[in-house]
Amino acid sequence: MKRPYVSAFTLLELMITLAIVAVLAVFAVPSYRSHVARTHRVDAASALFRAAQFVEGVASDGIAALPPGLDQAPQFGSAVYRLRVLAADDANGGYSIEAAPDELGPMRDDACGIFTLDATGMRSNKNVAVGSAPLTAQCWGTG
C-alpha cells in the first residue's frame, strides 16, 4: 500500500519563520511608533499656524477663544492636542497660542510637551513633567 503525499511545515521551518517575524517586529514597532508621534507633532504645529491666521484675521475683535475645529489637532476626529489663546503681554507681540496634549490622548507623555506660537513668530516647547523639552527644531519638524 502506498501512502498519499502530504505536504506540511516541519517544526524547524515554523521556528525559523517565527524567529524572523520576531526580529522584524523588534525593529518595526518602535519605528512605527516614532513615525506616529512625529505625525501628531507636525499636525499640532500646523494647527497652531491655522489658529494664528484666524486670530490675526479677527485681531480687532479681541478674540478670547478659538471656534470649534480650530481648537484641536487634528482638526476633525478625536483630539490629540487642545489649542487655546493665551492672554496678550509685552513679550508675545499681542497674542500667544498653545497646543497642549490631550490628557487622555496618545501624546500625553511626549517629550515635546506643550507647543507655543506667539504673534512675533516665536515657536517654543515646554514639558510640564520635566520642566524642559528637546530642541524646538526637533519638535516642530524643522530639524
Briefly note the structural class of the backbone. alpha+beta
Q: Could you state the order of secondary-structure elements as H and E? A: HEEEEEH
Strand proportion: 15-25%
Q: From the 3D coordinates, which CATH architecture would you assign? A: 2-Layer Sandwich
What number of domains?
1
- Uncertain segments are none
Please give the count of helices: 2
Based on DSSP secondary structure assignment, what is the total number of beta strands?
A: 5
Using the CA coordinates, give the radius of gyration: 24 Å
CATH topology: Glycoprotein, Type 4 Pilin
Strand sequence of the main sheet, in spatial order?
A: 1-2-3-4-5
Protein model, in words:
The protein has helices spanning 11-57, 136-139, and strands spanning 72-73, 81-86, 96-101, 114-118, 123-126. With 143 residues, it is α+β, with helices and mostly antiparallel strands. It has one domain (11-139): Glycoprotein, Type 4 Pilin (2-Layer Sandwich). Strands 1-2-3-4-5 form a five-stranded antiparallel beta sheet.
Structure keywords:
Glycoprotein, Type 4 Pilin; 143 residues; alpha+beta
